[in-house]
Amino acid sequence: DERPVRALVRAVLRSPALWLAVGTVALALVVHRDRLGLDLSGGRLFPPDGLAATWSSYLAGWHPTGGGSAAPAPAALAVVGLLGAPFGSPAVGVSLLMLGAMPLAALSGYLATRNLPVGRWPRAAVAAAYAAVPAGTAGVAQGRLDVAVVHVLLPLVLAGTAGMLRASAGSPGGGWLNRAAATALGLAVIGAFAPAVHLIVLGAALVGFVVVPSRGAATLRRAASLFAVVLLPLGLLMPWPAVLVQRPSVVLHGVGAAVAEQTPQWWRLLTLDPGGPGGVPWLGGGLLLAAAIAVLVRPRAAMLLGLLVALIGGGAAVALGAITATPIAGGAARPGFTGPALLLAACGLLVTVLLAFRTAPQGQAATGPRAPGWVLPVVGCIAVAVLAAGAALSGSAGQLGSDRPGSGSVRLVPALTAELANTSTSVLVVGDETEPARLTRGRPAGFGDDDIAPLRAGAARLDRIVTALRAAEPGETPAAIAQLATSGVAFVVLPDRADARRVRAVAGALTRQEADTADDRPVLRVLQPNTGAELIGPRLATEARAGSAPPIDPDVHGVPVPGAPPSIAADVARGADGRLMVLSANAEPGWQATVNGAAVPTVRAWGHLVAVPVPAEAVEVRITFADGVRSALLLGQLAVTLFVLATAVPSAAGRRAAG
Predict the structure, then answer these.
(1) Whose CA is closest to 190, among 127, 233, 243?
(2) 510 burial via Cβ count (<10 Å: 0-12, 13-18, 19+)
(3) Residue 595, strand partner residues
């Protein structure tokens, strides 16, 4: 009998979810027609490292950025590592997320509304509109991985939070812990990329807990759920929250490379357009119009919640665009990007529209003003079509692409790239005066490097060096290059050829011209850099310990020691007393050294580098960085993660109780 098969085929073909998926995938292919690839970068998205290097960087207690820093790596690095694990490459996982953000956001919006008393076709239409809002398309076009993550997860997190607040004394208790754990997990992932959205959702949940009434057992369940949603993300993100407390600018800017930001005009915020390429101005205003029509045509008390969420998102967008701060990586002060907050506002507006299609309970007549039944469907279809057309026309613009290196993300010629990796030397990238100077070891800047907090003294020192390079003064510039050499810098990338000519004119024999980068930026080689560690003689050691400036003469240098920070082990032959082993790493608490197995204190060389005094006899010197505290925190994070993952999956009994 073929009738059951035919019925199944008809049911599938009539499924709104199927057409939603097909339509948004087709739209995504049109939007990303010029950037289809699995190695996307540009804008705020710097190229991710390989899978092993990504996890090694996240787990490490010391990072070779900015001359060295023991600050925790961003939790987003772990998420990127998990995202790339199925493909063996974080770059592939990140690229697929950026390319698939629209259909994934549509699916998220569709699933998030499954508990509302609304038909499937209106839910699918609203989900399609959410997928194509300008804030989302502009975020992807500008390489903003944080916006893509928020775009995909925000509807589910908001639905989980609302479900927690809707608990009543008569609702079933089964499954509340599963929902709370799943909501906490989604909120933690959002917080890893966009801490501002994390805090906004938490604030809304706390206000809702106080405002929405409940009694009896429901109050206890809601309190326990709120407790889990507030505290579990902290455990999932540790030790990253410590950076947010110490460097609040991360909350404003989120995770990603520091790029120029602009304060959008008020009318752009009303149209849900954060500014920049990837979004068409005014199109998002259709959602505001649709929400206004929904309130006028079919007012519902429940719409107040959607309007409140929209108001919170709009207010957060105004605050993000008005407050300025210096990014954690340095550079000029800039506002935050309003895209994530506008996605929150879009969710509120779309829920308001969706509630206009709410069906009356069985046996109960609909109340409120009556209006022609075709008004809302027609307005909704027009809004979705306009948003989709705008995304198709403008979404392909922007910095994201397979061959569009963005500001600060450089591509050296293969020979220099290989030399950096083999010698473990560093490269300094100098951009314009608004950009941070990026100093990285072994490769140019990659994903997560701009989110590792540098030492404040090291950042100030690097700013002085960059200022001296830009000034190209005969006395200051050679001294700055000598400091770079002691810090292990082999290459300096300058903004343009005029800057390179001025630096070479005053640097003399300290530098040599190399092949330009892929985007035609000049590259200078620094002669005789400290490749990781070097042994210097007594006279030079005395100057180094006194905090003097490093010698400008490139022929005056130490003996290279094999290895690279943060771990050096070397057998040193007999020699003169008063020698010094100098690492090309910033001195900070945590460095430990032994000579022939006996612990010895470290000292500073040239005012800021780690060094160990070496006696005259032949000895074995070991220098390491102790990261016991971070290891303990990571074990705690792993324990919380396993608990949340196990709890978020509901048991069969829990599903029956919840259903």
Answers:
(1) 233
(2) buried
(3) 598, 621
DSSP 20-89: HHHHHHHHHHHHTTT--SSS-BBTTBPPP--HHHHHHHHH-S-B-BTT-B-SPPPHHHHHHHHHHGGGT-
Return the number of other C-beta atoms located less than 10 Å from residue 262's C-beta.
14
Rounded CA gap, 385 and 88, in Å? 38
pLDDT in tens, 120-147: 888 999 999 999 999 999 999 999 999 9
- Chain position carrying tokens 């409120």: 368
Give all strands of the β-sheet with 603-605 in edge-to-edge order: 559-560, 533-536, 579-586, 609-614, 603-605
DSSP state of 276: S
Are 602 and 568 contacting, i.e. CB atoms less than 8 angstroms apart?
A: no
- Residue 234 CA to residue 237 CA, distance in Å, equals 5
Low-confidence ranges of the chain (pLDDT < 50): 168-174, 362-372, 652-659
What percent of the chain has pLDDT above 90? Answer: 63
Distance CA(415)–CA(523), nearest Å, equals: 13
CA distance 149 to 20: 20
Query: How far apart are the C-alpha atoms of 487 and 489, rounded to whole Å?
Result: 6
Distance CA 75, CA 187 (A): 13
Letter for the amino acid at 177?
L
Token reading at 467: 């200022």
Which of helix, strand or coil describes residue 258? coil
Residue appearing with tokens 């903004």? 495
Nearest to 581 by CA among 610, 557, 547: 610
Distance CA 465, CA 489 (A): 12
Give the amino acid at 81.
G
Cβ neighbour number for residue 136 with a 10 Å cutoff: 33
DSSP per position, 157-190: HHHHHHHHHT--TTS--TTHHHHHHHHHHHHHHH
- Quote the pLDDT of residue 381: 76
Helix (H, G, I), strand (E, B) or coil at 155: helix
Q: Hunting for tokens 């003399």 — which residue is that? A: 508
What is the spatial distance between Cα 91 and Cα 81, in angstroms, rounded to a whole number?
9
How many residues are given for the chain?
659
CA–CA gap between residue 61 and residue 634 (Å, rounded): 10
Helix or strand run (H / E) with residue 486: helix 476-486
CB 303 within 8 Å of CB 352 = yes
Q: What is the CA radius of gyration of the chain?
A: 28
CA distances in angstroms from 578 to 87, 531, 595, listed in the order given: 52, 22, 14
The closest of 394, 385, 356 to 373, measured between CA atoms, is 356
pLDDT, position 173: 44
Return the pLDDT at 405: 52
Q: Which residues pair with 565 in a beta bridge?
A: none
**Residue 41, beta-bridge partner list:** 401
| Each residue's pLDDT tens digit, 243-293 | 999 999 999 999 999 998 888 788 888 888 898 888 877 777 888 888 998
